[in-house]
Each structure stands twice: as structure tokens, then as C-alpha cells.
Amino acid sequence: MKQKDTSHNAAEPVSPAQNPFIKLYDMPGYLLRRGGQFINATFDAEMGKMGLTASQLAAFLAVSLQEGMEQRELAARLNWDEATVGGMVRRLEAQGYFERRSSPKSKRGLQIYMTPKGKALYKQAEPHVARIQVDVLRNLAPDEQKTLLYLLSKMMGENNSYYQTDAPE
What we know:
Layout: H1 22-25, H2 28-47, H3 54-65, E1 69-70, H4 71-78, H5 82-94, E2 98-102, E3 110-114, H6 116-136, H7 142-156
Antiparallel strand pairs: 1-3, 2-3
GO molecular function: DNA binding; DNA-binding transcription factor activity
Domain HTH marR-type: 25-157
InterPro entries: HTH_MarR-typ (IPR000835), MarR/SlyA-like (IPR039422), WH-like_DNA-bd_sf (IPR036388), WH_DNA-bd_sf (IPR036390)
């Protein structure tokens, strides 16, 4: 197995002379992209055998929290475009996990529900999802985990239990 270059992780400050990549390693965009890669690899290692992607799991979670959303509402909740959500919902419906029903809210809208098969898969996935969250944050102390989640939430403008846009700081 290839040894990972950890020279940029040292406790002592690293100069560009010691590591010419330090400028790259200092960039927030680079770090966030690497964080995304780490999260995806952690997710794939845990969930790969179930055949669920991270995007599909997000849709499962959203529908489990609020069944009966229309596709446009689901897209808005996930911050995705409607075409992407529409394709995913069609695929999950074809696999028997979701079903779409006519919406009383609009003539053209379809509400999304999990089927019993979808609910069973989601229930099976829940403990794995919890384990992923622990694995992703494992190198951080509890106070660092809260700080990271607060800062990411603030950066993305997400109102959640870590950050409220209307709350005093």
C-alpha cells in the first residue's frame, strides 16, 4: 500500500521550502474537496454492499422526514436541480423503493412516498449512516466536532441544530 504524504499534517508550521504543496494544502477549496473525497470513501466503504449512493440516501432521508413532498419540494430541500431529482426518483421508483402519487396540491405535481421495500432498506441503512457520521469525525475531539459543524453550517447558510442564521452570535 502506498504511504500517504502527511508532511502537511505536522503540528509544527511547515514552510513552502519544506513542502512545496503547502500553498495548495492551505486552500479552503482544496481542503473541502479532500473532505468530500474522504466522506465519499467512508460512505462507499460502509454502504457499498447495500447499493445505495450518498445522493440516494439523502433522498431517502428527506422523504422519510416528510413523505408526500412533490419533486420540486424535494429538489429545494436537497438544494439540487429538479431534473437530477426527477431522474433519481424515477430510478428509485423503478427499483420499488419509492412511489409517486398524484398531488392534491397541483394538477401536474406528483408526491413522493417510500414503499414498504424502501422503508425496509432505509431502516437497514440507518445504523450504517450513524457509523459513517462517527467515522467521518473520528479524528476530532467533541468540541472540535461541534465547531466544525457550526462553521460548515454557517458557511453554507444552513439552519440546523448547530447554526441559526437569525440567532445572535
